[in-house]
Write a structure and sequence with these properties.
Layout lengths: L2 H13 L6 E5 L11 E7 L17 E7 L2 E7 L4 H4 L6 H10 L3 E10 L9 E9 L24 H13 L4 E8 L8 H10 L3 E3 L3 H9 L4 E10 L10 H26 L4
Helix pairs in contact: 1-3, 4-7
């Protein structure tokens, strides 16, 4: 049996015939959204073979299964990062398990630095595209023609439109932009930020892109939100730190949770 099969056995034992429709990954400071799930089960990463240990503050390390509105969800409280393990595919079993459970779509969230003056700390942004600056892929070593994944529409337009609609209906200002993935764990230099601006990025962070590639490899449509927790290096006199990330993530939690609730209620509504 594969690790995905082993995970499915653990999950099915906990939830029976419950099938989630939407998988979710909650990034730094956003784990409290899981408290809003009408939970069927909560499973620690330790009990799920191949699920990575979340070694960063603000990542609880649990899989919560249940419903928000009429939509079945599988909510991951926390993620592992490339910089923790040196493996771009560290989230592969997670994404494959989402697909195998029956998820038909994926929502990703994270914390990121803004390169846009009017999108300061506490802002919420929708990722419209990304730039992979690391030179690595979670599909290194994958076999078969499916590894040649088309990334032209990496972020699903219908899901993005639904998120825009939810933002408008709930009075949440939703910025948009291109996200640059840097490997971390160190923050960027001012020169790197200037270069990323020239390349067309509006935000920068240390996660998410591997999960996007893995999800597209699995045929899962997705959208991604990020909380702006800091201005990028060289744009503010405030020193950058993970403590700052966690503090400013709290500022946007309410808006993100309202967005996610509205999106999921609409997703599960009858046609």
């Amino acid at each position: 049996m594969s690790q995905v099969d082993d995970c499915l056995a653990v999950i099915h034992k906990a939830v029976g015939d419950f099938v989630p429709q939407v998988g979710m990954v909650l990034g730094s400071g956003l784990g409290t959204f899981a408290d809003q799930v009408d939970a069927v089960a909560s499973i620690g990463f330790d009990d799920l073979p191949g699920f990575p240990q979340a070694g960063v503050g603000g990542h609880a390390g649990r899989l919560v299964l249940g419903r928000v509105g009429g939509t079945g969800v599988a909510v991951l409280q926390g993620r592992a990062h490339y910089y923790e393990h040196g493996k771009a595919d560290v989230m592969a079993v997670v994404i494959q398990t989402f697909k195998a459970m029956g998820c038909e779509a994926l929502i990703l969230t994270n914390a990121a630095g803004s390169m846009v003056a009017d999108a300061g700390p506490g802002s919420v942004m929708l990722i419209t595209d990304h730039i992979n600056m690391t030179g690595v892929s979670p599909l290194f070593g994958a076999q078969g023609n499916s590894r040649f994944v088309d990334m032209t529409q990496a972020y699903n337009q219908n899901m993005n439109d639904a998120m825009r609609k939810a933002a408008l209906a709930n009075n949440v200002k939703l910025h948009e932009g291109v996200y640059a993935w840097m490997c971390g764990p160190h923050f960027e230099t001012p020169a790197e930020i200037r270069a990323l601006k020239v390349l067309g990025a509006q935000a920068v962070g240390m996660s998410t892109v591997p999960e996007v590639i893995l999800a597209r490899h699995q045929g899962l449509p997705l959208c991604a939100l990020y909380i702006v927790t800091n201005y990028a290096s060289g744009m503010s006199p405030t020193p950058l730190s993970h403590e700052q990330t966690m503090e400013y993530a709290k500022m946007a939690t309410d808006g993100v949770e309202r967005l996610l609730n509205a999106f999921l209620h609409a997703y599960g509504a009858p046609l």
